[in-house]
Amino acid sequence: MSTARFDLKLDPDDKETVAKAAALMGTTMAGFVRSAAKEKAQALLDREARITLTRGDAEAFIAALDAAFRPNAALEQALSQARRQVRRA
User: Fold this and answer.
1) What are the φ/ψ torsions at residue 51 (nearest 5 degrees)?
2) Hey, where are the domains in the chain?
3) DSSP per residue over 38-55, as a string?
4) Against a cut of 0.70, is the pTM above it?
5) Which of 5, 53, 72, 88 is disulfide-compatible with 58, CB 3.0–4.6 A?
6) 60-73 pLDDT tens trace
7) Across the chain, which distance is largest between two alpha carbons, in Å?
8) Phi/psi class of residue 50: alpha, beta or left (left: φ > 0; alpha: ψ in -120 to 50)?
């Protein structure tokens, strides 16, 4: 596994807090920071990958999916033009 270096500066109070937490976890400060950063990053990425809707929004979304499709005038015109221009083999 290749590694990439990442330097981090902490004020003394933050360093002490991280050192205590790392000791409680039985790991090094670097290991603790790496684990905590990865966990926090993954949680953020997971949260941003989801769409959260209110109950009302979810019901409106489902209703829109269930409703019969009705093309608007612009789509009807585009389809009509495409039918005239495209020949089936």
Assistant:
1) -110, 125
2) 12-85
3) HHHHHHHHHHHHS----H
4) no
5) 53
6) 999 999 999 989 99
7) 76
8) beta
